[in-house]
Amino acid sequence: MKKEWLDLLIYSMDHPLTPEEQKILDEALSLSKALKKEQEQLLAMRNLLSQNTPPASPIFVENVIAKLARPQQPKLTTIIVDLYPQIAAACVLFIAVALSAIYVSEGSLTYDALVGVNELSFGDANTLIDY
Amino acid sequence: MTAEPELLKQARTGDQLAFRKLVEQHEQQVRATVLGMLGDCPEAMDVAQEVFIRFYKSMAQFKGDSSLGTYLTRIAINLSLNELKKRKRTTWLTFFKGNEEKEIQIEDTHSNPDRSDTREMVNKALQLLEPDFRTVVVLRMIDGYSVKETAVMLNLPEGTVASRLARGQKKLKQILEKWM
Question: ipTM value of the model?
Answer without folding.
Answer: 0.77
